[in-house]
Amino acid sequence: MVDDEFQMVLEAIRQNVTAALDGVGMGAKPFAKAHGMGETVVRDLVKSYNKDVQLGTLAKIARGSNVPLVDLLRMPTQRAQVPTRQALERAIADALPGLPRASGKRAEYLAATVAAALQLPEGLRDDPANDGMSAEDVSEEVAPVRSPTR
To answer: What is the CATH number of the domain that holds 55?
Structure first.
């Protein structure tokens, strides 16, 4: 398992370094020479010849490519599949067992649940001027509340 994780991280670093080199429009060898590294150090990293990455090397690549070091170490984000509406409704119903089925009651229940989760004071929940989101003594303009779309 550790070996698999190591390979995943190493591959992410390789991809990030390749993107950094592309960003400055230089190949591995000229980039390495221009930034005080051995001619093959960056090439070996990018071409998977080197199985061990030195943090100092990554720092030089980051400086030379004007990319934050943390970006060279960043793992790619994995996007989840977008769930269907039915799956979302089922997940919400499972998470909130008291959720009413009628849409008007459901909206009130969700608003009250969110207000309770955010620990909003009672005065912030009952202001009719902004549908319960600002205190009564606040004199800022409030955007109109939009009606739900169908």
So the answer is: 1.10.260.40
